[in-house]
Amino acid sequence: MKLSVNPNDKTPIYRQLYEQIASEVLSGTLSPGTPLPPIRTVSKELGVSMITVRSAWEELIHDGYLVTRTGSGCFVAPINETHRQSKVDERLSAAVDALVSDAKALGADKETLLSMIEERF
Fold first, then answer.
1. CA distance readout (Å), 40 to 37, 66, 110
2. What pTM did the predictor assign?
3. Domain 13-76 has CATH 1.10.10.10
4. What is the per-residue DSSP string for 85-96?
5. Are 86 and 40 spatial neighbours (Cβ–Cβ below 8 Å)?
6. What local confidence, expressed as pLDDT, does residue 16 receive?
7. What is the pLDDT of residue 81?
8. How is the chain split into domains, by residue range?
9. pLDDT mean over 82-86
10. Nearest-CA neighbor of 82 among 72, 73, 90?
11. For residue 76, what are the β-bridge partners?
12. Max CA-CA distance within the chain?
């Protein structure tokens, strides 16, 4: 697993980490039972605070993407298909809402936006 952060992004670093891991879990790139690197290791590799990494891991645990095993660390949680699809729909809905909002703010019409989406899909 290759994590990266962009300190110039307006998205908080813990959230950048959260989004990367959640996406890999939902896509199946990280399969259930896969161990995550220790918080200290990620912190050193990315040059960010351990508190930042811990915040991302705790939110991932809270949202059901990760589980902890005492003395062993964090692992990708098993996610049933219904739950996985619900999470995918939730994330896609938020992305579409943001895209539509940006398009409206820029004065784009629906047909132009749909055409651009079709071209890229």
1. 8, 17, 46
2. 0.79
3. yes
4. HHHHHHHHHHHH
5. no
6. 97
7. 85
8. 13-76, 81-120
9. 86
10. 90
11. 66
12. 54
